[in-house]
Amino acid sequence: MISQREQDEWRARSLQENGQEWDESAHNEVATRLPPLPHYRIEIVDVFEEYSRFPLREAVKLYGPTIRYNPKLYGEVFRRSNRESSVLAGNALATPLIFNGLLRLFTTIQPDIVVSIHPIINYVTIHALRELNLNIPFITVVTDLISVHYSWFAPGADAYVVPTEAAKQLYLKRGLDPERIHVLGMPIDPKYTLPVENKEELQRKFGLKPDLPVILLVGGGDGAGGLHTAVRAISQARLPVQLMVVTGRNRRLYANLQRTQARLHVPAKIFGFVNNMPELMHASDVIITKAGPGTICEALACNLPIILSGYVPGQEEGNIDFVVSNNVGELALDPGTLIDALRRLIKPGSPELRKRVANAKRISRADASFAIAHFLLRHLPSDEKQSIWQSARWQRTQLKMSSRLQSAIRIHRLPQRLSPRLLKSPRIPRLPLLRARTRDISTESVDRNR
């Protein structure tokens, strides 16, 4: 979106300079007098899947199943690892499994800036960038609201972007450089800043009744958070409401709710993983969700009162305090508390509902993604400055790199030069390194999502 806006401004300036309607001839004539047309190349990489080795590559896939089936275990792991000694020990174990992969990634893509939105490998990423001996900015964008794990703040990053003042205080307690911390909000999909149809039109679009409060139930992308229990409790209480339930990637829950939908005592619409969450939220009056930071901030952007039906121990405990202390919602872990909270909010003219809607408007930072994107763009080198990857410094670094690392980088690039016929040879399976997967590199203008 930022890139599109800058391109529109560039064209408008070109028209103003040329004094006529836009066409290719006008563009060619004026382009030489204007700065280059803004353009950004974005690479989104799953470093665990594409550049790490077993068992690290598989271990990170356990997050979804663990928070769904054994959240207490996840909470215990979070708490035990949330200290310096544990983080350093984990980094020592992870480094051999991903270090060379990161070097291959950086030397293949040759980035001007590296941005991390995951805490696990920040330490080893900084180590890899230092190994290259290049001044490439590394910025950490923290995506936890309050309970920020120790591993997020790896010393040596150029900047740390956090969503709340509470997260900033945790950073400062570490004794790190106060000039490098920036409170810019939680990045969410930019669609939440766009105008939508009014509530009545959206409800009509989703086939909802116009005279019943709409309750949206969301369990996050992995469908956790006690959704089934909440739906059953609302049905048994026969509240005068209608439900929209988003089960995310939890296919078993989706199938279960589909089977039992006809037996519910309240009208209900059941969805799986959706891409139109802004419309669903704007069509609703209250949201029931687990305490995930993304969903909380999205709900605030839509001025929705929040009822928290669950949380991931350790990681999301601080989010409960954030919601309750700002009086935008409450915690309801048992059916009785949930039903009482709903009754207060759906009561006609509810003062509690009005107060929470007003508070959501007050603390919402729907445009945080734009603020973060502008902050990142400020760290890019100017168009006139030579890329560090074409500099003499990089040439010297390549000469000094160990033969082992040079071989690792060359082997990663080799399959791109091998013919498809050779890659199908029965001898190739004996050389797993030569069969390293090559990626399609997607190029796109900056269009910040979520």
UniProtKB/TrEMBL annotation:
It is found in: Membrane. InterPro entries: Diacylglyc_glucosyltr_N (IPR009695), Glyco_trans_28_C (IPR007235), Glycosyltransf_28_UgtP (IPR050519). Gene3D superfamilies: Glycogen Phosphorylase B. One of its GO terms (cellular component) is membrane. Belongs to the glycosyltransferase 28 family. PANTHER family: MONOGALACTOSYLDIACYLGLYCEROL SYNTHASE (PTHR43025), MONOGALACTOSYLDIACYLGLYCEROL SYNTHASE 1, CHLOROPLASTIC (PTHR43025:SF3). This is Galactosyldiacylglycerol synthase. It comes from Tengunoibacter tsumagoiensis. The lineage of its organism: Bacteria, Bacillati, Chloroflexota, Ktedonobacteria, Ktedonobacterales.
